[in-house]
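Example 3.
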Amino acid sequence: MSALSKVGKLRASLARLRLDAFIVGSADAHQSEYVCDRDTRRAYLSDFTGSAGTALVLADKALLWTDGRYFLQASQELSDDWTLMRQGDTGVLELQPWLCKHLASGSRVGVDPYLMSTNQALALQTALNDKGMTLVPVEANPVDAQWADQPGFPCTAAIAMPLERHGKPHGEKISEVQSFLQENNADALCLSLLDEIAWLFNIRGSDVECNPVMMAYAVVTSDAAHLFCDERKISEEVRQHLLSSTTEPTAAVVHVHSYESAAAFIADLKAQGKRVGVDPAQINWSIYRAAGGKEAPQLLCPVTMAKALKNDVELDGVRQAHIRDGVALTAFLHWLEKAVQAAPNSLSEYDVAVKLEEFRHAMPGHQYPSFDTIAGYGSNGAVIHYKPAQETALKLSTDSLFLLDSGGQYLDGTTDVTRTMHFGPEPTTRMIDCYTMVLKGHIALATVVFPEGTVGSRIDAVARMSLWQAGLDYNHGTGHGVGTFLNVHEGPQGIGFRKRENEAGFRIGMTTSNEPGYYEAGAFGIRIENVCITVDANTPNNFGDKRYCTFETVTMTPISTKLINRSMLTPSEIQWLNEYHANVRQKLLPGIRQYYPETEAWLIAETEAI
Amino acid sequence: MSALSKVGKLRASLARLRLDAFIVGSADAHQSEYVCDRDTRRAYLSDFTGSAGTALVLADKALLWTDGRYFLQASQELSDDWTLMRQGDTGVLELQPWLCKHLASGSRVGVDPYLMSTNQALALQTALNDKGMTLVPVEANPVDAQWADQPGFPCTAAIAMPLERHGKPHGEKISEVQSFLQENNADALCLSLLDEIAWLFNIRGSDVECNPVMMAYAVVTSDAAHLFCDERKISEEVRQHLLSSTTEPTAAVVHVHSYESAAAFIADLKAQGKRVGVDPAQINWSIYRAAGGKEAPQLLCPVTMAKALKNDVELDGVRQAHIRDGVALTAFLHWLEKAVQAAPNSLSEYDVAVKLEEFRHAMPGHQYPSFDTIAGYGSNGAVIHYKPAQETALKLSTDSLFLLDSGGQYLDGTTDVTRTMHFGPEPTTRMIDCYTMVLKGHIALATVVFPEGTVGSRIDAVARMSLWQAGLDYNHGTGHGVGTFLNVHEGPQGIGFRKRENEAGFRIGMTTSNEPGYYEAGAFGIRIENVCITVDANTPNNFGDKRYCTFETVTMTPISTKLINRSMLTPSEIQWLNEYHANVRQKLLPGIRQYYPETEAWLIAETEAI
């Protein structure tokens, strides 16, 4: 089936629905970063398989917006019937202004309301209305209707998490949501983010690659909780878990319904006169409409913050998982250095990603990667979201830098770590200077102290100042929250220069990555990334009656000292690095001796004080 | 006339206008920080004379909102008929939520549309509409109608600025606005900020205390410019200046109209079918409505940025004015130290402010202060917006710190400088440690390098990090733009943690203050403030094809080294301080020798390297 005929079929549907345009994006109904195969509608329709892109089909045009990462791939994959809209290029309008400019007043633009967040939909609706156009929610997705071999939803069994992994029974969590409802004069709260639902019920799934979640909605009411998912995923054990609780019986009542019945259930609550709360930054437009639209209490979902504030049990798991992950990664880096030095230009970036998984998988509790490994040698290291493909991967050698960004899902924690290495005898002065500046930024952020509640955008520059001094910078954020055996990217905190929706300040117990970098196009990439926990800095003063916070680094893997220009570091930076390496050595030695004894000498050498 | 009868009269007007409430704020029609006596309606009505506060009069209540600086003063000045609304206190609603909560659906809330910015008015209107209420613009201000002895507008003569002071004929500036109009498909632009109008026409006034501006509106059309002001202010010389130009004749046509005719002129343009652009963050609600309201092109006023980007002539003036200001302030600080040491507890904070003016006024080009001098000894130094009054001012002595924040208006520049001193033999360790941390923050910001276009909120933390390490902080912004013989506070740049309306990133040629501080309630205040110019850092790289900027400090006055704990400074911080002092010495010596030769030895001593 050619792209043309797929577009042609969609055009027939548009004509039938009296639509002038239809938007097909990359999102699923849950704002997921990774989506399951069933939700790859834009790739099906356009043949463009990149992770980010939006298709717009009109009677006489088919356009696809994507960003610079994917210009080459999109131009190769799209047929001639498509026009590639290069986002960020001068004069290229984004989807919304394009629609406002090119469509006539009275036009009807369709979208599947499940596949767009409420805030996005309302902003688009307002812009279109201002031009006399209408945004039409089409619940019966015409792409699904024509997609004969569309995969079904995945159907993997859910698992129940034991108390010793999460430290807080779901009955207590649900009770807290119910208190929130009472405070906010609402009768129910709709949840749609998959990691929030997994966290709330202390269950995990494996419906989505790299993320231990299952496709679900949830509704918490004043006297019960409702989980909407494929009921075949709920084993008798999980059902017992859902019914169990250490708190009052009412909170523990979790009713399981089919995934498809969520919207109708919510509409029914609304019809009964209930005030059904939604967070328009999270919830899709369809659920929002079911809850009553503008009449629904607009709430800031309380589960986001509750999940981000790890308790002591979770933090202990985070620390333990990072030690095991450090054992695997350190042993792997040792293996890799030997392998590349023994036979340059034989191992590819793709081989590295595969082999690294073997090392991680030997560790207790390891499940699968927490995201697609980024393994970039030389110029590929400068491609920030590079994912090596088997056919095109570069071979690793001893001339340039190798950037490895990877992570694992463990039953007690999620990891995300980047190391940059050079396997040859002579890294260039440029590589060393740039690496040292990135390291200075990393250390500055690792040691910064700030008042609790400070938003990450206020401390983002801390990690960039050493690069800025030389006129260097990096085009990505500096940190993101990290789940505990959940999504590797989570909010509401983050460290970056862009304004985030629902962003919240850092509080004690939150996690973050610390990942400054530098990318020299066509040459090499550098990133040094550790995961940190926000902890009390125990300052001698507490101005403003606030706690002051700092970061505890939990990632445990040597930072390549071979690439450091020691003369560029201050005494306190050298002290931080030496203390970090002493800590890495102490934490990893037992595991290295147990699992990879051949790496002990290398670990000792790589963690020597400079 | 008692406050009751004034409120009673207003209530009678409200009944006649069928209004349930009327808002009387502190603003004039031009978003001015300082307002002229005619615009002190809130003080007239409530007897509360603080600079910030909003009165709300209802049939059975009169409320006044103000912030923590003024709780004491307001409670003393307000009669029993008023309820003080303590902004920031727990449970105290702001004006808008208070109206939404306490007034019934159908209520009509009045406001003088000249005295509220469009964005404020529209936000309030939306909130009220959502509750079924109406915001009613009342052009004939009922407070003015009842205020028998309301002062008239000031009528001071305008002056024309010569080319050697500003470097850019107003014809060129107007032409650039006309190009902007063309690019934005508009026929006219309304201007209301007094400093922007003064800058655009290269004229100055003295209608408003501390600010060399005159009460005016302006409208630039595609073929002319219109200035609306009291025509008696325009001498024949200024009229000739307005008609002169080095560019094409059309741009130079400046028509002068009466101040009161602005809104009617704008409404007339709109009636002729012209597209009359407004910046809703700047323009008052009345002018916005005259321009067509929602139909008017909503533009980001281009004069704001043009004025902020100083040209070389202006920057030279800024540097020269700061040297002369430094001569006066340094000589004054020397005089003050001697005076306090000779007779502790005799000079008051108020005396200091008066005497300082004498020193400044001896300098060529000096006009008047650029803001009310803040002179706080001991615990008064911890009151951030402290303004000494003759009756209550503390006497200066040798036990505590003295904070002096002051500035001058010179024909070639505007200054703003804060120094903190101790006149006794033994400042405490606490004072020294805190002072040194503030200095470290000041130096960190003075030396930071950042990509051009970086917004100030991203670098605000740079000035706080040293304080944060100890659990200390300060509750004010770190920097504001400074005009050139214009307002001491100007946008669109700024360095702070709060989001500013129309905020723009730093660009080469912009000015900023650098003023971290620390305030220990009941004990002392510390602030070290210099004015800086944003300059090219000439970095060896220019990642992202951007220029990288840093700050050139132009304030020239010694920073008290007696209060520094040298062991807390890094070698590069010591180097910065010593280079700064060497520069101060070199720049000030000629003027000190000319005007205050008795201070030469003190200047040398105070600028010795540490």
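The mean pLDDT of chain A is 95. Chain A touches chain B at residues 448-451, 454, 457-462, 465, 467-473, 475, 497, 537, 539-544, 546, 548, 570 (CB under 8 Å).
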